[in-house]
Design a protein that fits this description.
88 residues, alpha+beta, three-stranded antiparallel sheet, two-stranded antiparallel sheet, 3 helices
C-alpha cells in the first residue's frame, strides 16, 4: 500500500501542496518565526517558498487569520528577510 503524503494549503496562493515543500510559520510564546523543521510546538501556518505568496498572505491578512493574532510590522519585515535568505 502506498504511503499517504500529508498535504497542506498555502495561506498565500491557497493551493494544496505537499507538506515537505512548504515552509511553516509558527506562533509561540516567544513570537512569530519560520519553522524550517516543521516540528516545533505552536500554532502553525504553511506557505510556499515563493516570496510572492508571503506578500499575498500578509496583504490579505490570511496569515493573521491562520495564526489567530495580529502581526507587527517589524515581524513582517523579518519574515520577508528570512524568506529571501532561504531562497538564495
Amino acid at each position: 500500500m502506498a504511503k499517504k503524503i500529508p498535504m497542506r494549503q498555502c495561506v498565500g496562493c491557497k493551493e494544496l501542496k505537499e507538506k515537505r515543500i512548504l515552509i511553516r510559520i509558527l506562533k509561540t510564546d516567544d513570537g512569530i518565526m519560520l519553522d524550517e523543521t516543521g516540528r516545533q510546538n505552536g500554532r502553525g501556518a504553511y506557505i510556499c517558498r515563493n516570496p510572492q505568496c508571503l506578500q499575498t498572505a500578509l496583504k490579505t491578512k490570511g496569515l493573521e487569520r491562520s495564526l489567530k493574532t495580529s502581526i507587527p510590522e517589524e515581524v513582517k519585515l523579518r519574515l520577508e528577510e528570512e524568506m529571501n535568505h532561504i531562497n538564495e
